[in-house]
Write a structure and sequence with these properties.
The chain is of the alpha/beta class. It has 13 helices and 17 strands. Helix 11 packs antiparallel against helix 12.
Length: 342
């Protein structure tokens, strides 16, 4: 018997797939925020140390928002063959779904770690999973959620907050450093650093000045001006081919879709290097601009937008993404530049 146990143990340790943590990312066909969904998938898949799947109640294509694109879920709830170690909840529309919420509560009861990205925190708050805990969310939603859920200790000074088995993040682009921090917990510092380097993104920095994100006169005017001219907005194609970089595509699609001056979509349907299937519009618009997603750092897309439409528009996009680019261009530059922007 001892020899049989030794053989079984050897087989188990020789198969990394058996030992890898399972992380599932929820999605809803009716609408799921682009970076909220793709960033955790891309970061964890790139590491090679985590099994990660995008799951939904059905295999219907998931509409990415903003942007004009869809992705295919990789499994349904019913198709999962084992309990996930981590469940990630991006911002989805509608915010409430009884089947999805019941499934999530059951995973929490069974001990899964829960990670809510951006306004996905509302799903947890509504289900009572944040009661008595510290949490954060997108800056624009904080006041409303603080009023609706007073039993939660809402904070503005962190890009992500871990309170026991629950993690919440600030807005949209906080999904990238928070996913790297999760990867560090699951696979270690060395794996996290190597993954960040390959993706071309800074190492995670948790400190955050969320109170500095607010709609001032300049941002309001930029946004209104964009909306007023949306009817003549530029058609922007994000170039992808099979094997494309998931994270670079997502940050480009998301950022160019928020300018109020352009409509962004993938140049064609393709499958990423991590087997994420992206579906383009059935009838592709005629592109006035083709953009190349070069790396996953949102600063790259924001700089490209500044070059195309001016710094005011890039600042407005950074505000909606809750990205530190907003702080960098709003304030006087520090005497010593920071080592990295999250």
């Amino acid at each position: 018997m001892s020899r049989l146990l030794a053989i079984l143990l050897a087989l188990f340790t020789a198969s990394p797939a058996l030992a890898r943590p399972l992380v599932v990312i929820l999605a809803d066909a009716r609408g799921t925020e682009t970076t909220d969904l793709v960033a955790p998938y891309a970061v964890l898949a790139e590491s090679g140390t985590v099994e990660v799947k995008i799951i939904a109640p059905t295999l219907a294509p998931v509409r990415l928002m903003p942007g004009k694109a869809w992705v295919r879920p990789q499994a349904t709830f019913a198709q999962l063959t084992r309990e996930p170690d981590v469940v990630v909840i991006p911002f989805m529309m509608p915010a409430y779904d009884p089947v999805r919420d019941a499934w999530l509560r059951e995973r929490a009861k069974r001990g899964a770690r829960i990670v809510a990205i951006c306004a996905g925190a509302e799903t947890l708050a509504r289900g009572g999973l944040l009661n008595g805990r510290e949490a954060t969310t997108h800056w624009f939603e904080l006041k409303r959620l603080a009023k609706a859920y007073p039993n939660v200790r809402w904070r503005r000074d962190r890009r992500w907050i871990v309170d026991g088995p629950i993690t919440t993040t600030a807005g949209v682009t906080a999904s990238i450093p928070a996913s790297l921090a999760l990867l560090r917990d699951l696979a270690g510092e060395e794996v996290m650093r190597a993954t960040a380097a390959r993706l071309g993104v800074p190492l995670p920095v948790q400190a955050h000045d969320g109170a500095a994100f607010r709609v001032g006169t300049d941002a309001a005017m930029t946004g209104l001006s964009g909306w007023a001219n949306a009817w003549r907005g530029e058609k922007v194609a994000v170039r992808i081919t099979d094997g494309f970089d998931d994270l670079a595509f997502a940050t480009a699609l998301d950022a160019w879709s928020r300018t109020n001056r352009s409509e962004a979509f993938p140049s064609q349907g393709a499958v990423s290097r991590h087997r994420l299937a992206v579906i383009a519009p059935e009838k592709l618009p005629r592109a006035g601009r083709m953009v190349e997603p070069r790396n996953g750092d949102p600063t790259t897309a924001l700089n490209d937008i500044a070059a195309a439409y001016g710094k005011a528009t890039a600042r407005y996009v950074a505000l909606t993404l809750e990205h530190p680019y907003w702080l960098e261009v709003t304030r006087a530059p520090p005497r010593t530049p920071p080592r990295s922007w999250p």
